[in-house]
Amino acid sequence: MKDNNFILWFDEIGIEDVPLVGGKNASLGEMIRELKDKGVNVPNGFAITANAYKYLLKKAGIEDDIRKILSDLDTHDVTNLRERGQKVRDLIINAEFPEDLKDAIVKAYEEMHTKLGYEKDTDVAVRSSATAEDLPDASFAGQQETYLHIRGVDSVIEACKKCFASLFTDRAISYREDKGFDHFDVYLSIAVQKMVRSDFASSGVAFSIDTESGFRDVVFITGSYGLGENVVKGAVNPDSFYVFKPTLKKGKKPIIGKKLGTKKIKMVYTDNGVKNIDTTEEERNRFCINDDDVLKLAEWACIIEDHYSKKAGSFKPMDIEWAKDGDGVSVGTGKMFIVQARPETVHSQRDVNVMKTYVLKERGRLLLKGQAVGEMIGQGEVNVIHSADDIHKFKKGQILVTDMTDPDWEPIMKIAAAIVTNKGGRTCHAAIVSRELGIPCIIGTENGTEVLRNGQKVTVSCSEG
User: Fold this and answer.
1) Average pLDDT for residues 198-209, to the nearest whole number?
2) What is the mean pLDDT of the chain?
3) DSSP calls for 243-270
């Protein structure tokens, strides 16, 4: 019985297994099982099931302690949230890890060599996959943790402990409260997946529709050099591409739009984990992938969207993460891979019979420009926040101005009148969450934190694109 297993290989699971392995794992399994023969490359691996998480809590006897810690939780008090989140995470990380669970994980990791043919002690990504993840109306984007370039059994076990604990990151606790999920009705599964060496190449995000208008006939792709975290978090202004789907499906090469991003940094591996380094002038002045790569990603986006739409019985636009595996010479295979696919959460839920238009009736002096997310307009008092350590200083109804956001900022993003960032593209965290929350957002302004001042009253208009 699948239900009792600690380990399930990706080729044993599909989209119907979300309660067992979470949204991310179920989708990875679905693509490996159903789309491999259609040419879609997905890195292989295995899922540590939600049953394993439940077993850990039961054997360690810590569920009642977690309930006690969360009994006076107030997610609108950032200090209260931070203290309780840290206590729960410490409790899980320090819990005694059951030997039979550890043995099962070690055995599966070693079988990545004997069963899947990867090198011994191969490098893997250890990724969280929550059972409430990737729902049609709630992305749960980035709420739990991922650990990259993990090698060796001890490192894998340590990363798994941290992943299990990350079900209770501050942002995940806050997001569940807002979406009405009980903390004990959501479980954590883990993906242990062959690492794609995009640190020697590039990575990014693709949407099977236009992110702003919801137009169905384009694929929108963003990308930058190095690991994908910078694109997802909005740490870089990425390259972007539009591909027209109807003529792509007829065998043409319809790249109808390309925009060069500044791509000032890239995330790479070091002996002490990952770090950002500056890109070269040459890298900044060329696109991070070539036209053939763009067309391949667009083709795969169409295949994935068509598959999930057919399975759902209705149109199912998709939010997809991709990575290129090295240069194919000194590192990796040089091939493109899909590392995640989940339902798009905004336009897929929109009432197509209702059209809203926002108009700015009066104009003041233009202070700043960037890329608009959505079409809404917001106004309020500027609060420049430079670090997640200062989010407790933010008040409801203010304009959040920052370098970039990540999921830790979600508790204040939901109370902002608008959001302005220096960095990021239309597929970054700030953009995705702003769309989902229905909050106006201007990304990639380059110098918003320098131009705008605390207490300044401003209007943020996304109504002009």
Assistant:
1) 96
2) 90
3) EEHHHHTTT---EEEEE-----EEEEEE
Lowest mean pLDDT among 112-116, 208-212, 278-282, 353-357: 353-357
How many alpha carbons lie under 13 Å from residue 185 in its C-beta half-sphere? 7
* Helix count and strand count (H, E) for the chain: 14, 19
Half-sphere exposure of 80 (CA within 13 A, CB side): 10
In a domain, 330, yes or no: yes
Tell me the angle at which helices 50-60 and 18-34 cross, rounded to the nearest 10 degrees.
150
Could you tell me the end-to-end alpha-carbon distance of the chain, in angstroms, rounded to an integer? 52
Instruction: Based on the fold, state whether residues 31 and 175 are members of the same structural domain.
Output: yes
Q: Are 393 and 383 in contact (CB under 8 A)?
A: yes
pLDDT of residue 391: 87
Nearest-angstrom CA–CA distance, 170 and 80: 10
Cα 60 to Cα 46: distance, rounded to the nearest angstrom? 24
Can you give the pLDDT at residue 356? 66
Residue 238 within any structural domain of the chain: yes
Angle at CA of residue 333, ends 332 and 336, nearest 5° = 110
φ, ψ for residue 82, nearest 5 deg: -65, -45
For 406, the domain range is: 371-461
Statement to judge: residues 224 and 333 lie in one domain: yes
SS3 content of the chain, % helix, strand, coil (to 5): 35, 25, 40
Could you tell me if 380 and 323 lie in one domain? no
pLDDT tens readout for residues 58-78 = 999 999 999 999 999 988 888
